[in-house]
Predict the structure.
Amino acid sequence: MVTVVILGAGNIAQHFYTVFQNTESIQVVQVYNRSEKALQYFNAVHTTTNLKDIVEAAVYIIAVADDAIASISNKIPFTDRFVVHTSGSASMHVLHKKNRRGVFYPLQTFTKGTQVDFATIPLCLEAADKTDFKLLHSMAAAIGSTSYRISSEQRRALHVSAVFVNNFSNHLYRIAHEICEANNVPFKILNPLIQETANKLNTLTPYMAQTGPAKRGDEKTINDHIAKLEKDIHKEIYTLLTQSIGKTYGREEL
Amino acid sequence: MVTVVILGAGNIAQHFYTVFQNTESIQVVQVYNRSEKALQYFNAVHTTTNLKDIVEAAVYIIAVADDAIASISNKIPFTDRFVVHTSGSASMHVLHKKNRRGVFYPLQTFTKGTQVDFATIPLCLEAADKTDFKLLHSMAAAIGSTSYRISSEQRRALHVSAVFVNNFSNHLYRIAHEICEANNVPFKILNPLIQETANKLNTLTPYMAQTGPAKRGDEKTINDHIAKLEKDIHKEIYTLLTQSIGKTYGREEL
């Protein structure tokens, strides 16, 4: 049985709490949070708002905003235990060195209140100590996740990549939504195309999957599209991404 | 029984041919193409390379490159029949007016050699004549597609939107692939995130689904990310999309 204390009460803390509660080999023994209110969610375990009351456990999971990780790991009153954070962008070394350090980063976008299937979520693991790494690996396996040994530097690269494929792709969906609304077209017509664009990566690299006027160098369609766009920033985004696709396929200028 | 002649032998022509062959109420009676070679695919029906040999049918589907539609519809030797094209960006009026005109546009990305499920593909229909429109509607229903009445102007908006959600999203996947390769991280780790980003649109609008440093206005992470990117054009894309997300959530400048 791996005993766990979770520090933090937000989205990630809740998702880990829920999946650990459903895992026989992992036991959440306590949840800490600065404020009482957010602790209501964790009604099946002992909770505290006082760092001095934290109990002993095999691993302490700090699941708080990036800029609060260093401070909370510093304030922890104990030493020589195993403390991890769950951040994609923070280095393992933002954790205070008085404890053994590690990272347990789920590479997925979480929606509050929506159950997630950890079997589909890759976990990026890092630990300074070999035995600690094995513990994280066994925890990932216990909740059904595929895990990868990822250094802080690699994790930073993954986190930037995640911004491109998640945050930025979603923003492109938003722009399409705006264009549809401005032209009285239901956005849902695009949904199958959006799903298929993502699905293609199960069989093709993005390089192979690329299609469209920018790849073909079809200047007439490109100019028609830019003329059709109403917002300047949409024109700018269209132009820049078209230029970048052109470069990818060997055209310096369109 | 709806009789169909397909003009063109490319990707879209092949997909329509295959699904019509499997549909009881639609019969492909002939496929025309300028060159003989590409006609090999259509081995179960009569084929021709001569426009003068085209037989009678209820609907003629021109499935060729956008810039060839006007020319082929002009060269067709008959008049007063029903002729449609399958393009997302070309107006219905690029078809020569000597025939009755329409559009039968499948809004999806097609991969050569990959079977497609038309039940998941929205068809955008347009026809000048009411009876012709009904015919297209019944054909869409026969192959299991959901269809929408979409004007040429609306279709143009959808086509620009499709470039954003398909071509440009795929290019963002490509950029992430490049970043992963440069940092010795397997790109496949990002695949579940990519799928989930698309899946979220089944329950949330893109406006509601947005997360990340650009939305939060988290300047430290944004600057770290831009510093981490090696290619100037990736920095430019990161900066512009971050700025656009900022505007969407009410921040003029970051």
